[in-house]
Amino acid sequence: MKKLFNNSWRPILVLLLLFIVWEAAVHIFLIEAWILPSPLNILKEMFQSWNSFSIHLLSTTQLALFGFIIATICGLGMAIALHRIPFLRKSFYPLLILSQNIPTIVLAPLLIIWFGFGILPKLIIIILICFFPITIACLDGFRQTSNELKHYMIMSGSNRRQLFWKLEWPYALPSIFSGLKISATYSVMGAVISEWLGTKQGVGVYMKLASSSFRTDRVFVAIFAIMLLSMLFFLIIRLLEKCCIKGTRKEAGK
Q: What's the pLDDT tens digit per position in 5-52?
């Protein structure tokens, strides 16, 4: 934990310098606020509109978290099935790749037609965006398992179930968490995109209304909120990673 925060001061310093240059440029070049507001104006608007904006932020957080959890279950379940059943891997792996070539902007109207304006089409969008990195990372982790240790456990009399849970799964955890960190950040953007389909609350709705009324400061409030929420999700997964995979490969090799 201490090492994690000790290494974070450099990007924070870069961001501070960027905001200082941004603030100075707005005042030097007399840029109108509706074109590009200054960081101080954005911060001021964030505090002034926090009571109303926090409702939208909470809605997006819940939607992103719910979708991410379902995507994680689907992604890990699919990866395990494809890994342990070669027939499924040969049959469905190409379809897995093709699922990521469907543009979300094209799929979204169809989901509304099929499932209405409820939460289901929004969750489907988040799942489609998030499950792929988890599945691919998990499969790569399974393939990276030491063949020598596999051979040793087989010679020791381990069955397929023991081989998977005691060796392949621990070895795949670093790759799995890499996929989870990517998907965690994707889930926030997926939630915002899904909110554009039609809902009453959410950062996506807030951003859409602000953009249509030329409230650029509120648009930036939404953008910064999305960035901070994505970073928070990433940090939580990273902390879980440090707790879960500490010493797992050593234990797998025993």
A: 556 667 788 888 999 999 999 999 988 988 999 999 999 999 999 999
Region at 210 (left for phi over 0; alpha for psi -120 to 50; beta for the rest): alpha
Q: How many residues does the chain have?
A: 254
Task: Please give the Cα distance from 214 to 219 (Å, whole number).
Answer: 9
Tell which residue, 130, 64, 76, 75, has the closest CA to residue 100: 130
Instruction: Supply the pTM of this predicted model.
Output: 0.86
Structure tokens at 128: 């489609």
Gap between the Cα atoms of 225 and 106, Å rounded: 26
The conformational region for residue 33 under phi > 0 = left, psi -120 to 50 = alpha, else beta, is alpha
Alpha-carbon distance of 89 to 41, in angstroms, equals: 53
Residues 91-123 as b/e (b if ≥16 CB within 10 A, e otherwise) read eeeeebeeeeeeeeeeebeebeeeeeeeeebbb
Which tens digit of pLDDT belongs to each residue from 138-149?
999 998 888 888
pLDDT at 64 over 90: yes
